[in-house]
Amino acid sequence: MHSSLKGSLVFLIVSLILIFVFGILHGFSYDGMLSPFGYAMVLFVTFSLLFLGFFGLIHFLSSNSLESNPWVVDANEMDRWFNPMYDTWLFYHDHKKWASWNTLVSWVLTVLFGIPIWLVFTFILSAPPTISANSWTGWAIATALMVPFAFSWYLYYTSVDRTPSPFPKGRLSDLPRRL
After folding, report:
1. Rounded to two decimals, what is the model's pTM?
2. Which of 65, 74, 102, 128 could be stapled to 88 by a disulfide with Cβ–Cβ 3.0 to 4.6 Å?
3. What would the DSSP string read from start to end of the chain?
4. What stretches in the chain show pLDDT beneath 50?
5. What pLDDT, in 10s, does the model give residues 77-109?
């Protein structure tokens, strides 16, 4: 495991533990309303699922596009601007650069789609629909925690060896015969 990945995971875990400790000390809710720490935990889990969903969707689309367009594997260079196959080419040729771009895109989409979810969540929980300071603080904490989460995900994703397998597609039971 890379040292930057370990440091990022430690920072993320320590941040979450601190939120739990402050939440336990000050309470996750009071008078039927969530505290800033309650909002932060609920929104962080929601934002994490959104981030992983967007990243997984982009990964799925890139891998399907690669299977549909095998000529991308043979292309040595490809221009980025206005080229719909660039992400597919990058997915095959430079997986770390692909992961860095798509981590950033997934994080931005998470924040953009997380804002309406946050507003709906805030209005559902409050009897008169208002946006309280607790809600703003919880949203800010959850959004700030998404940065180390996304960075940790990127470091983990790029640390896994993604070189193409020398074995053709087939059943696992066929592997000894092919060797």
Report:
1. 0.77
2. 65
3. --HHHHHHHHHHHHHHHHHHHHHHHH-SEETTEE-HHHHHHHHHHHHHHHHHHHHHHHHHHHHHHHHH-THHHH-S----TT-TTHHHHHHHH-HHHHHHHHHHHHHHHHHHHHHHHHHHHHHHH-SS----HHHHHHHHHHHHHHHHHHHHHHHHHHHS--PPPSSPS--GGGHHHH-
4. 167, 170-175, 177-179
5. 888 778 888 888 888 888 889 999 999 999 999
